[in-house]
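SEVERITY: medium
COMPONENT: batch folding queue
REPORTER: lab tech (J.R.)

DESCRIPTION
The queue accepted two submissions in a row. Attaching both inputs and their returned structure tokens so the on-call engineer can compare them side by side.

ATTACHMENT 1
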Amino acid sequence: MKSPIKILVILFVISITSNLYAQQFPSGYDIFEKAKNAVAIVNVYDENRNLLRIGAGYTYTADGQIVTSHSLVNGGTYVKIKVNDTEFAPSALYKIDRRRDLIVYKVDGNNLPFLPVGNSDNVKIGDRIFTIGNPKGFERSFSEGMISGKRDFGAGKVFFQFTGMSSPGMIGSPLLNEYVEVVGLISSRSYMNESINFATQINSLKPILESTEVKNYSVPNFFVYEKPPTNFNIGLSYESMGNHSTAIWYYLKSLKDEVKSDTFRRLAYCHEQLGNIKFAEDYYRKARELDSVN
């Protein structure tokens, strides 16, 4: 029979070990509480303000840079972003990289809660990861999983494969490590097959995120109801998101409202991006002719 002293020593060691384990491996609740206010709810609407889809994003800087997935907003006209229970319409589109499925908006906020960026090179297969998103519109749903693979699809597209919640409402959600650092951005690629989840590794996005070069494109404001958006502005929105074919359609519609050289220049640029060089040359010529008249 063990002596009372030995039993006390064993209990003490177990207690110390448990405390060390708890400190080393934070609970999911702790991670959720630290991250929840910096995870954004991103709603995407068409030109008539009909809801197209719901996803997520996160606050990258305290002054209001919001990171999300380009595929989430592609094809939409308006974007509404909710951070820490405050709704914003983006004041500008800051950065965009369609190839890496990344878009960064700017909202007019100050001292917003934000998430630090981690080092995705340090993430190993089997590591715990966490996500917060809006599946089926259920806001701030928390999920825990683990890294199940690393995939390189070429052209700078480097992904984590992971287990956890799978739903279109998770597109744009940050993938978090145990230090509540962003190590990935959940991609639309996950939902080609809803049993497999992918997130773009954050290190492949850092060159864009850390770049001082910004686009600073204007975007239609969801909350401005007094004056409906013009066809020209809707075209600009689609063009800024890389949807040049749809942009062309709206620019052509806008010519029925008002004929101006800027519209011809935008048409020329979009056709140029699509490889329609003859159309581009014709529209550039029309823009020059109109400028010379005015």
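ATTACHMENT 2
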Amino acid sequence: MDKLDTNLEQQFDLNLIEAVKMNPVIYDRSHYNYKHFVRKAQTWKQIAESLGVPEQKCTKRWKSLRDKFAREMKLCQESRWRYFKQMQFLVDSIRQYRESLLGKCNTVQQNTNQVAQVDPNQQQQQPQQ
């Protein structure tokens, strides 16, 4: 890839990040239309048209950027990734997502512990006929 292609890709990434930032329906789980599939699809279509690329390229690249940002956040140190500062608007939504996952994991763990506490030596009494 030559320097011109690299510059074009970087500019595309920055434009995509800015477009997503302006449309919280895509990333903000507390947004009232976050789970509204049709609204999200319309938003992606508008973003793709504004950037002049296929919708699939936008969504695929966005997922890659979002996942990279989430991994960089996990490192708990100052990231040197070029888009880290531009994507700070995702911090709250990623934290909320992780906390919701943690809650689900804790519930599963509690249920597993309750099952494990049943004494395997106790036999269920069969109803007598």
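NOTES FROM REPORTER
The chain has one domain: 3-109.
No errors were logged for either attachment.
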